[in-house]
Amino acid sequence: QVQLVESGGGLVQAGGSLRLSCAASGSIFSIFTMGWYRQAPGKQRELVAHIRSGITIEYADSVKGRFTISRDNAKNTVYLQMNSLKPEDTAVYYCYSDLRTPYKRGDYWGQGTQVTVSP
User: What is the tens place of the pLDDT at every residue in 70-94?
Assistant: First the structure.
């Protein structure tokens, strides 16, 4: 069984910073992609950033230049450093991973962590 456990969300003023972490654990054979999505109230879940094959990084246009994603392969952990936060960044942030267990390949999701940015 695979688990993705997130941490680091919270309340911050506009212009501040937060760092999210997500650790994958369980029977993991290999990890292809790790990343972050977010979902604001009344909106669809959207990609924030992800790392594919440990090399290719993609960001949503709305966070380019402010957010930085990184990955520690030895710890199966992905981080999201969020700087210059804006009220519109307020959302539940979900970690996800496309990975392979000894039995199958699939997408796995964390439980979500709330990020609230006050004006």
Answer: 999 999 999 999 999 999 999 999 9
Q: With 80 as the cut, is the pLDDT of residue 101 above it?
A: yes
Please count the residues of the chain: 119
Which ranges in 7-46 belong to alpha helices (H)?
none
- For residues 99 and 119, give the distance between their C-alpha atoms in angstroms, rounded to a whole number: 38
Binned at pLDDT 50, 70 and 90, residue 43 comes out as very high
Type of residue found at 116: T
Give the C-alpha separation, 29 to 98, whole Å: 11
Is 80 exceeded by the pLDDT of residue 58?
Answer: yes
- Dist CA 97 CA 53 (whole Å): 11
Q: How many angstroms separate the CA atoms of 23 and 93, rounded?
A: 14
Backbone angles phi, psi at 61, to 5 degrees: -60, -35
